[in-house]
Queue: 2 jobs
Job 1
Amino acid sequence: MGKRMGRKALSRPADVLAPELLGKLLCRKTDQGILKFRIMETECYMGEEDTACHASKGKTERTKILYEKGGTAYVYLCYGIHALFNVVSGREGHPEAVLIRGVEGYNGPGKLTRAMEIDRTLNGEDMTVSKRLWLEDDGYRPSYLTAKRVGIDYATEEYREILWRFIAEDARYKPVR
DNA sequence: AAAGTGATCATG
DNA sequence: ATGATCACTTTG
């Protein structure tokens, strides 16, 4: 059985945490029971200077969660339909997060949240203590590939090009395009 | 290739 | 109050 990840591990900078989260277990307790899925794909978003990061225009009602302590859940609605789930990371006051793009069996950030019943009621949840949503480390460390982040055409070229997407090598992900 | 969907944020 | 913009998914 895995061990819950705590504040220290989840407060690493997002570009360090994103590859480390590959192979970790995303755990969700609902009325139906406990679901655990292994994380296979992540992306990191790194502060106000990262033009792809939601906090690139500063702190707002929506983005204030990104400035919280590492280990806080950031869940927001995308395209009016999909809840997207991020793990806030880095030090408090600095907006960084890791987007979970894929877990075992579900490739796509909107699909995995639907499968695990992760919605915006979990926005702001402290995953280091939560009974509803947390991360476990059972020691599995997959090798991985890096790639450019997806769906951020609005960012400046510098930040579009950075290899801030991390894909576990044995993940059966659907290539983009 | 393109619609569908609604919160969010800047503008007036 | 209004309108553009989306860290996506599904359908044809």
Job 2
Amino acid sequence: MENYQIDNLDRSILHALMDNARTPYAELAKRFAVSAGTIHVRVEKMKQAGIIVGTRVSIDAKQLGYDVCCFIGVNLKHARDYPATIEQLEGFEEVVEAYYTTGNYSIFIKVMARSIDHLQDVLINKIQTIEAIQSTETLISLQAPIMREVMP
Amino acid sequence: MENYQIDNLDRSILHALMDNARTPYAELAKRFAVSAGTIHVRVEKMKQAGIIVGTRVSIDAKQLGYDVCCFIGVNLKHARDYPATIEQLEGFEEVVEAYYTTGNYSIFIKVMARSIDHLQDVLINKIQTIEAIQSTETLISLQAPIMREVMP
DNA sequence: GATGAAAAAATTTGCGG
DNA sequence: CCGCAAATTTTTTCATC
């Protein structure tokens, strides 16, 4: 968890692994003209430093029938209801992200649903049943042309 | 890319790999009481079906000095400027996600920055230099209490 | 389809520069 | 800190049920 200043080699390794975490170390070694052992050492260091948090498979939600992605701006009646509201939102599996924000909304959430009908169901029968919510505003995402991670 | 109806075993494997893509197949095999070969076959099938898209390391942007996360609602002067605007936004590494949305904004983007100063710089010297943009509205995220993927 | 063992490949460790 | 190579672990294949 300490600070560790990454160098160019670390950066290159990170880039490669962010694209494909299963790239063999031997291949990275060849690509960056170092040994596989060195790649291993660097990766371990970045894990230790808390830079690399884990490795996950990424799935195509569409292939699993989740077609609708939307953002919902939520306004609360009272700011003090924030923790309780988050807890309730966490119980709805369709809510995949939540942000506590400054600006127009108190909470900003991302919801994945199977269809417009399903989204409507989530909105009416789940989200809008939360007492503390005053109003919501929905932005349906038709397309996500950019989707990547920050690249230091 | 065809349709493939996943069963409970597939779902369990998916859950495990979404949490940690490096879980050895032998361990999953023990956990789900099947053989390692079966795990392998199922994973390959889900790859073939386009359900598993790839594996990526997840990094902690904070550890790399990216402290500020924000959303920006963008309004365009003309809807026809959409493709060109996306192209320009793509050139700014701080723009990590972009959505084409219905509702209050034409485009909705997520931006990661090193600091409030850096964010201001991105806003003024990058995003707002795009001719086609009429107005923007910024929501700064103070916290992200929920962050997960959809779990079929 | 699933299994389990054998073969191939990749990761990890430790010694020596 | 790096490289090399041995030791270990994991993935992949395949004949068989």
